[in-house]
Amino acid sequence: MNTAQPTDAPVRVSFRDVMVEFPTAQGPMRVLDGVSLDIRQGEFVSVIGPSGCGKTTLMNILGGFVQPTAGQVLLDGRPVQEPGPDRGVIFQEYGVFPWLTVRQNIAFGLNLAGNKVPKSEHKGIVERYMGLMGLSDFADHFPKHLSGGMRQRLAIARAYAVRPQFLLMDEPFGALDAQTRSAMQDLLLQVLQTEGKTVMLITHSVDEAIYLSSRIVVVTARPARIRTVIDVPFGYPRAENVHEDPRFAALRAQIRELVMQEYAAQARQAVRLSD
Fold first, then answer.
1. pLDDT tens per residue across span 95-131
2. In sequence order, what E strands does 156-244 have?
3. Whole-angstrom Cα distance, residue 79 to residue 68?
4. Whole-number pLDDT of residue 153
5. 3-class secondary-structure state, position 208
6. 4 φ, ψ (degrees, to nearest 5)
7. Which of helix, strand or coil describes residue 14?
8. Tens of pLDDT, residues 248-264
9. Do residues 1 and 237 make contact, with C-beta atoms less than 8 angstroms apart?
């Protein structure tokens, strides 16, 4: 990851006036409404907003798991229509296979028919990511023998092993304790600096969004619209002392206020619906 933010880098992803509705017993429920956003090569973009507002749906469209009701999501100028090996997805629930060892989990994607990595390179790739994630000593352990933080490291290693260009992360550290979460954030920054990826992160943590991101997208209560996009004023690489920067505190207060306003809007919506 470069020290400078990639303001002049090419646009890789474009959300163009995206709207999503899901059918319900009460009729269509609009989850996203008029979302337009560009993500450039090498950016780390976090999306933050109230619970249930549609953030995960936004990521799932880019992942190819959900199709928009209207509008388009373009990847390198082509509509996203299905999942692909160019996008690695990491969920909060770890996303590892409990019946496979650490080594086998990381190798899993490499053995799929659609993977273009030569067989002769598989062992080296698995060893590399076990080393990067500090999992080499646990190569033949099953996930049930790993801590939560280690299982999440395994999920990241498995996603990285297939060499995706994009990393899509949905609350990947949300289930971890504070100390482990902080360590995982630092590890992610270290690996990104080594590997260089474009990242979209869904998070509820303002501090996490500021610490990791080059830009933060604040979305409204459902249906999610983009309320504002904020450039984070810190370059890469980053270290823990960025939390002590007065700009960090000011940005935290600004974003928290925006998010709390949207939580209040969500509460008003709930009252209206119950009347």
1. 788 899 999 999 887 877 566 677 788 889 899 889 8
2. 166-170, 198-202, 215-219, 226-231
3. 11
4. 83
5. helix
6. -80, 145
7. strand
8. 999 999 999 999 999 88
9. yes
Asked if 109 and 86 touch (Cβ cutoff 8 Å), the reply is no
Q: How confident is the model at residue 94 (pLDDT cuts 50, 70, 90)?
A: low
Task: List, for residues 212-239, the tens digit of each pLDDT value.
Answer: 999 999 999 989 999 999 999 999 989 8
Secondary structure (3-state) at 245:
coil
Q: Are 189 and 237 contacting, i.e. CB atoms less than 8 angstroms apart?
A: yes
- Quote the pTM value: 0.85
Domains in the chain (CATH in brackets) are 11-86+165-274 (3.40.50.300), 95-163 (no CATH)
With CA atoms as reference, report the closest residue to 52 among 219, 189, 216: 219
> For the sheet containing 226-231, what is the strand order?
87-91, 166-170, 198-202, 44-48, 215-219, 226-231
Q: Yes or no: say if 146 and 138 are a contact pair by the CB < 8 Å rule.
A: yes
Q: Name 4's Cβ contacts closer than 8 Å, sequence gap at least 6.
A: 235
The percentage of the chain sitting over the pLDDT mark of 90, rounded to a whole number, equals 51
The pLDDT value recorded for residue 26 is 83
Determine the distance from the C-alpha atom of residue 259 to the mean position of all C-alpha atoms in its chain, rounded to a whole number: 18
The verdict on whether omega for the bond into residue 237 sits within 30 degrees of 0, i.e. cis, is yes
- Mean pLDDT for all residues in the chain: 87
C-alpha gyration radius of the chain: 19
Residue 42 region by backbone torsions, left for phi larger than 0, else alpha for psi between -120 and 50, else beta: left
Which one, of 27, 21, 28, 13, lies nearest residue 59 by Cα?
A: 13
